[in-house]
Amino acid sequence: MSPTDYLAIIKETLIRSPIVQEWTIVNEIALSDRGHFRVRLTLANGDFVEASEFFYIRNDGIEQQRYRYQWMDANQQQLKKRWDNAPHFPNIETFPHHVHVNQENNVLPSQMFGIPQLVTLLEQELSP
After folding, report:
1. Any idea what DSSP says for residue 28?
2. Alpha carbon distance 26, 2 (integer Å)
């Protein structure tokens, strides 16, 4: 898999998702072995998501080097969840991977995942 292939997978996931109403690419970079994708989403319920992922291609797979996925209400005032791997919670068992839930100081363990998996997770959370 190449960075261009992975970026195509991300875009196809966004196009096909029933919960993604609109999306705008903020930044897109594809080099020989790595890339970056940053996108802003409006979900079908009006919520806002900003997703940013720096990734490497390793052994024909994707490895997220740095990521931040922030899900907020439609007015972008209330945090719903933010997944990231900033190394500022060393006591979390999944360090550096963690999720902020509903507020900055409510931090829980999380796993590393990419934008396609984020969309799947959002679909599950928003399904009736």
Report:
1. E
2. 21
Q: Where residue 59 falls among pLDDT bands split at 50, 70, 90?
A: confident
Provide the whole-model pTM.
Answer: 0.92
Q: Which long-range contacts (CB under 8 A, 24 or more apart) does 94-100 make?
A: none
**How far, in Å, are 45, 63, 88, 121 from residue 84 at the CA level?**
23, 14, 10, 15
For position 61, what pLDDT does the model report?
Answer: 86
CA trace torsion 9, 25, 85, 112 (10° rounding)? -10
> Do 13 and 116 form a contact (C-beta atoms < 8 A)?
yes
Distances (CA, A) of 41 to 19, 34, 67, 75, 96: 10, 23, 16, 13, 25
